[in-house]
Design brief:
15 helices; 392 residues; Rossmann fold; alpha/beta; binds pyridoxal-5'-phosphate; six-stranded mixed β-sheet; globular
Length: 392
């Protein structure tokens, strides 16, 4: 095991090996520097940490439990523990990040948040935090996605946010990120850009990982209590941009556990991508031979991002974490398996992590009798209609 590899502070350059950095227009450099300085101050300020901890407990419902999945374990021949982010307020890990960035917005004396969203989960979470803190909120969403996810658009509006359909490019998530950044350039004096995953320019990949590390830190202690002081053999999480996986891995990187991130087969940046620059960061990206960014494709809108957070690219290259993928068909089977064996309907995203585990347990890639900690990043309500359509 590579015990020397840590998920540390990447320092002022925001580099994870050759990845990360801050590739933004001149006009956004001071804005990123301001966020970095505010976050560094807040993260070492006991009063900020105490306020965030109390919101995570009393508003978001933390700590979330770790559930031993007995019937699923019997089926797979491995011992499965589930970290239950599906039980948080708003139903996924995204609440951990937006409460942190919402408090940071207040700390910077700003009154407005902008965000990008794909399926709408990060938009709903940001609108939730904005309502809680009394902040103005504008969410950029590709026009195609506003049509596919009409219910989430309605939720954001109900929460008081303005939703702006983005009509440029492919009219999906990557274009929404571009528009949110454009807004931020023009409004930076009173606006914070609340980015939704461990991606984008420094300090976002590091800051969002730190806000999500509560998932892994809780899970490590909970697993030790369940396993009589031992750590799991394998820790697995799904990867879109990579925030729930980064938060999970942060808790276990110092143990001997094997770390596995699972991407959608149609959005597999580590498997099929090559390093390049997009949205302010250097990382593995899906691109053609001329450097044009390719559209990722997956049944789960939360995973169809053409890139991956830069720290994951670094963890893949240095071997501390491994990245695998799961196909849409495997994911649908895994979702139904968890529903039937445990009474838990997962979101399509974490069903990717389970789909890999099912395959790995069958093939022996994960040995019989191993203990496996899997982050269940969110609940399946948002996907019920999609799944109904695919299964009928
Ligand atoms: C958004 C989302 C993801 C993907 O985002 P990451 O940053 O990779 O965690 C995964 N699961 C759920 C439930 C989501 O809503």
């Amino acid at each position: 095991m590579k015990a020397d590899i840590a998920m540390a502070d990447p320092g002022p350059t925001g580099r994870f090996g050759e990845y990360g950095g801050r590739y933004v227009p001149e006009s956004l450099v001071p804005a990123c520097a301001e966020v970095e300085a505010a976050f560094r101050g807040a993260w070492s300020d006991p009063a900020f940490r105490a306020r965030l901890d109390s919101l995570l407990a009393d508003y978001a419902g933390r700590p979330t439990p770790v559930t031993r999945a007995e019937r699923l374990s019997n089926e797979l021949g491995v011992d499965v523990l589930l970290k239950r982010e599906d039980l948080t307020h708003t139903g996924s890990h995204k609440i951990n990040n937006v409460l942190g960035q919402g408090l940071l917005t207040l700390a910077m004396g700003k009154s407005r948040m902008v965000a990008e969203t794909g399926a709408g989960q990060h938009g709903v979470a940001t609108a939730t935090a904005a309502a809680l803190f009394g902040l103005e909120c504008v969410v950029y969403m590709g026009e195609v996605d506003t049509q596919r996810q009409a219910l989430n658009v309605f939720r954001m509006k109900l929460l008081g946010a303005e939703v702006v359909p983005v009509t440029s490019g492919s009219r999906t998530l990557k274009d929404a990120v571009n528009e949110a950044m454009r807004d931020w350039v023009a409004t930076v004096a009173d606006t914070h850009y609340c980015l939704g995953s461990v991606m984008g320019p420094h300090p976002y990949p590091w800051m969002v990982r730190e806000f999500q590390s509560v998932v892994g830190n809780e899970a490590r202690e909970q697993c030790r209590a369940i396993l009589g002081g031992a750590d799991p053999d394998v820790v697995v999480a799904c990867v879109g941009g990579g925030s729930n996986a980064a938060g999970t891995f942060a808790g276990f990187v110092g143990t001997d556990a094997r770390l596995v991130g699972v991407e959608a087969a149609g959005g597999s940046a580590i498997g099929r991508g090559i390093p390049g620059v997009l949205h302010g960061m250097r990382s593995y990206l899906l691109q053609d031979e001329w450097g044009q960014i390719l559209e990722a494709e997956s049944i789960s809108a939360g995973l169809d991002y053409p890139g991956i957070g830069p720290e994951h690219s670094w963890l893949a290259d240095n071997g501390r974490a491994q990245y695998r993928s799961a196909s849409d068909d495997e994911v649908l089977d895994a979702l139904q398996l968890l529903a039937r064996t445990e009474g838990i309907i997962p979101a399509l995203e974490p069903a990717h992590a389970l789909a890999w585990l099912v395959r790995a347990a069958k093939s022996g890639e994960v040995a019989a009798g191993s203990t496996v900690m899997m982050t269940l990043s969110g609940r399946g309500d948002k996907d019920a209609e999609t799944v109904m359509g695919l299964l009928s």
